[in-house]
């Protein structure tokens, strides 16, 4: 199922579940963003757009029913047909999650909260509430990713300005152009990319895709994109692989295939994964060791995890990246 259609069905389901009375087609059309964008709010004279909306609405309603949703059709006193999905008819059986499954859902919710999907999911209900329509009680409302649901609060930040346009470009299979500064470059270069997938690894978001200028697969750290991400017309020229090794590629940057080295001070008896990668280790006194380690631009995320137990000596760029990330953590 296409992501755009899945979002539309989700919003329709939320509207039908979130109201206490049946909603007419006209009310649903004016409340769901995808319908408004495609056909207008439906408050003007009847026209060809009405027929197209009716066909899409009937298909969406049938799709929800095929997915198991119970949707009632109710005839109003004035002859208008309304639609309603009662809570007691659409309850899921109790769900038991283990710790890993609960953490995965929590992470997905955190990303959802910060991305465009959060607005799309809540926009329809907000419009209904603003119009004075009675909605279900707050304690019975739809899932709100902004509300904590357990003591486990994992976070995957998605604050980079490039995140949302790249997420939409991956979804819609649209080529993009952006300026990108490599770890060892003094100034950014323009890159023309067919985006495949976004993935988070060690606190950074990465984009994998096809670099048209280099005619090869590339992985880009989103925080190194400068300026706006601009969409380009046209189709992908390269085939999207079934599996993209984003994490393996990024890990290699921070390790074996790194072209530079870094010097750090590490508190004794800490940072064993870094010690395993070290090219050299010597005692620095005062309970500290000095290490020389391979340096790629994924290394700063490793170092930030060690907090006060690590000090970057050189290069200056790595030290600045670690300081910036620590400041961002302190502000959060």
Automatic annotation (TrEMBL):
<dbReference type="Pfam" id="PF13280">
    <property type="entry name" value="WYL"/>
</dbReference>
<dbReference type="InterPro" id="IPR057727">
    <property type="entry name" value="WCX_dom"/>
</dbReference>
<dbReference type="InterPro" id="IPR051534">
    <property type="entry name" value="CBASS_pafABC_assoc_protein"/>
</dbReference>
<feature type="domain" description="WCX">
    <location>
        <begin position="260"/>
        <end position="330"/>
    </location>
</feature>
<protein>
    <submittedName>
        <fullName>Helix-turn-helix transcriptional regulator</fullName>
    </submittedName>
</protein>
<dbReference type="InterPro" id="IPR026881">
    <property type="entry name" value="WYL_dom"/>
</dbReference>
<feature type="domain" description="WYL">
    <location>
        <begin position="162"/>
        <end position="226"/>
    </location>
</feature>
<dbReference type="Pfam" id="PF25583">
    <property type="entry name" value="WCX"/>
</dbReference>
């Amino acid at each position: 199922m296409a992501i755009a259609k899945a979002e539309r069905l989700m919003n329709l389901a939320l509207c039908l579940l979130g109201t206490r009375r049946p909603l007419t087609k006209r009310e649903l059309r004016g409340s769901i963003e995808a319908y408004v964008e495609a056909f207008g709010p439906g408050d003007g004279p009847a026209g060809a757009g009405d027929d197209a909306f009716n066909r899409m609405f009937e298909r969406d309603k049938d799709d929800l029913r095929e997915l198991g949703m119970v949707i009632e059709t109710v005839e109003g006193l004035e002859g208008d047909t309304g639609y309603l999905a009662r809570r007691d008819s659409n309850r899921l059986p109790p769900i038991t999650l283990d710790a890993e499954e609960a953490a995965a859902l929590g992470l997905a919710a955190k990303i959802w909260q910060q991305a465009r999907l959060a607005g799309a999911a809540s926009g329809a209900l907000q419009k209904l509430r603003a119009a004075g329509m009675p909605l279900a009680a707050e304690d019975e409302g739809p899932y709100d990713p902004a509300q904590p649901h357990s003591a486990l609060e994992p976070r995957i930040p998605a604050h980079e300005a490039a995140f949302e346009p790249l997420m939409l470009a991956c979804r819609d299979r649209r080529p993009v152009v952006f300026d990108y500064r490599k770890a060892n470059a003094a100034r950014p270069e323009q890159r023309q990319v067919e985006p495949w997938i976004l993935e988070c690894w060690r606190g950074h978001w990465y984009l994998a895709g096809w670099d048209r200028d280099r005619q090869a697969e590339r992985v880009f750290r989103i925080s190194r994109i400068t300026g706006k991400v601009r969409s380009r017309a046209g189709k992908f020229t390269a085939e999207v692989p079934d599996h993209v090794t984003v994490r393996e590629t990024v890990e290699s940057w921070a390790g074996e295939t790194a072209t530079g080295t870094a010097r750090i001070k590490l508190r004794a008896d800490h940072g064993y994964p870094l010690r395993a990668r070290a090219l050299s280790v010597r005692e620095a006194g005062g309970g500290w060791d000095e290490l020389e380690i391979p340096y790629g631009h994924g290394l700063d995320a490793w170092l930030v995890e060690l907090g006060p137990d690590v000090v970057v000596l050189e290069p200056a760029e790595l030290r600045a990246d670690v300081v910036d990330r620590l400041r961002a953590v302190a502000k959060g």
